[in-house]
Specification:
Low-confidence stretches: 96-105
Helix content: 25-40%
Number of domains: 3
């Protein structure tokens, strides 16, 4: 399996070079696929993902289920991109395994899972994000892990599994972190009992230019952050910042009043159906 793992790492590094990204930067997987010439479409189907192309290799397309949580769609998209870059041909994934946990007897699935993890969560980048916040990764709390997962647009458990698989954290630490679910983290931050939803924590050390959300998601911002637009409404204060609820699709700008931080927030409709490139339009063209 090590040879497959090494092959996945090398391919992920190659794709990063093509995208103009270094080993520390996060990848917006939907934008990346568009740059690489793949069409990504969301459908109302009960599956994880599908990669397909014409017999001559043209028109590569990734189909994703709009019924899955946003971070799961991101990982599945990277998984399907793996099938494309390794030229596996059309693939239908009815069930996506957690990163690094694909069936041992399915080398192609193991390979593309490793590729997806390496592309979305580069180890140097993950360790750098903990270090810049002066957090010890081997003693990090669930909220700290969730914050780093927000940077890389992956699921909390996916990041924990990735770090365990790459021996950055121990089995026992991963087990303890896994006892705390994102829903429990959400409730600890918003005890007044909003209905649990996917959320992202964007702290003062966050330096990614674009944040993707879905209507019904929450985003937690530092108190110094101002927003332009009416797609987000303030929901509640929390111990790590101000919580906002995404109420309609569109693109808005967020910026720090001290000029140290600025980024765009792109919000797509809940369970959006259509081309990924149009996902943030307030009125998608027919």
């Amino acid at each position: 399996m090590y040879s497959l793992y090494k092959q996945a790492l090398l391919k992920a590094d190659e794709i990063r070079r093509i995208l103009g990204l270094n080993m520390f930067e996060s990848v917006n997987i939907f934008d990346a696929c568009e740059i690489l010439g793949l069409t990504v479409r969301f459908l109302d189907v009960n599956m994880e993902g599908l990669y397909t192309r014409q017999s001559n290799g043209s028109h590569p397309t990734i189909i994703l289920s709009a019924l899955r949580p946003l971070p799961r769609r991101c990982f599945t998209c990277a998984h399907e991109l793996g099938h494309h870059v390794f030229e596996h041909g059309s693939k239908l994934d009815l069930l996506s395994f957690p990163e690094g946990q694909a069936e041992a007897n399915n080398s192609e699935e193991f390979l593309v899972d490793c590729f997806a993890g390496a592309l979305l969560m580069p180890l140097a980048g993950v360790q750098s994000e903990f270090a810049k916040r002066k957090w010890n990764i081997k003693k990090a709390s669930p909220i700290q892990f969730f914050t780093i997962a927000s940077v890389f647009s992956t699921g909390y458990q996916t990041l924990v599994t990735h770090c365990k698989a790459n021996k950055i954290i121990s089995e026992s630490q991963a087990k303890n972190l896994s006892k705390v679910t994102p829903s429990k983290i959400f409730k600890s931050l918003f005890p007044r009992c909003f209905e649990s939803s996917y959320f992202k924590i964007i702290d003062a050390q966050f330096h990614v230019s674009v944040v993707d959300l879905e209507v019904s998601n929450y985003i937690i911002l530092s108190p110094s952050i101002k927003i332009e637009g009416d797609q987000l409404i303030e929901a509640s204060e929390s111990s790590v910042g101000t919580g906002y609820l995404a109420i309609k699709p569109g693109i808005l700008r967020a910026y720090d009043t001290f000029g140290k931080q600025a980024f765009f927030v792109r919000i797509q409709n809940y369970a959006y159906i259509g081309l990924a490139e149009n996902r943030h339009l307030e009125n998608e063209p027919n």
